[in-house]
Every structure is written in structure tokens, then in C-alpha cells.
Amino acid sequence: MDETRSGWTPSPVFSSMPHAMGRGSREDIVWEALERVDGKPAPTMGAMQAAMGNEAQIRLVTDVIRRYLDARGMRDLGQLAARAS
User: Fold this and answer.
1) Residue 4 carries which DSSP code?
2) Is 19 helix (H, G, I), strand (E, B) or coil?
3) DSSP 8-state symbol, 63
4) Measured at the alpha carbon of residue 50, what is the angle toward residues 68 and 79, in degrees to the nearest 5?
């Protein structure tokens, strides 16, 4: 998937292994989930393929955010931001 965060670039300091095992990977999962709540389409893949990568975690986080918004009667993150301001 293409990166959609503006101004974000991979850190040249860290190799991919520390990123994949640390905070950077978790941030990537949350960012992707937030974008999907706002309408970014999810890739089509089977459950086994999703379980072998970050996709299963992205789907879980997306579901939790969606339930949070639904419980408060909000359609998307824009409405959450409007209520917070």
C-alpha cells in the first residue's frame, strides 16, 4: 500500500527489523486503521494472508475505532474532531 501520510518518510537511521518489531510498526498499524475509518479501501486478501502480516492487526484496530465512533453516534473522524474542538 502506498503511504498517505503527508511529510512522512521512512527513517534512514533504523533498519526494517527494529521498525517492524517496535513502535514504528504499531504507529503504522494505527495510522492505516484511522485512514480506513475515514474511507480508505482495504486490500482484498484471505484470512490466512491477513493473519501472516499486519493486516489482521489493522482490521482489529479499525473495528475498535469504528465501534467507538458508532457508540457515540459519529460517522467519521471529522465528527470526532469537531466534537473535541
Assistant:
1) -
2) helix
3) H
4) 25
Read off the pTM: 0.69
Chain centroid, CA 60 distance in Å: 9
Q: In 3D, which of 71, 80, 73, 72 has the Cα closest to residue 34?
A: 80
Find cell 526494517 and name the residue: 16
Mean pLDDT over the full length of the chain: 82
Kindly tell me the burial class for residue 85, based on how many C-beta atoms sit within 10 Å of its own C-beta (0-12, 13-18, 19 or more).
exposed
Contacts of 16 by beta carbon, 8 Å cutoff, 6+ apart: none
Per residue in 3-24, pLDDT tens? 566 666 665 544 566 666 777 7
Instruction: Name the phi and psi angles at 83, rounded to 5.
Output: -70, -35
Whether 41 and 35 have beta carbons less than 8 Å apart is answered as no
> Which amino acid is it at 45?
M
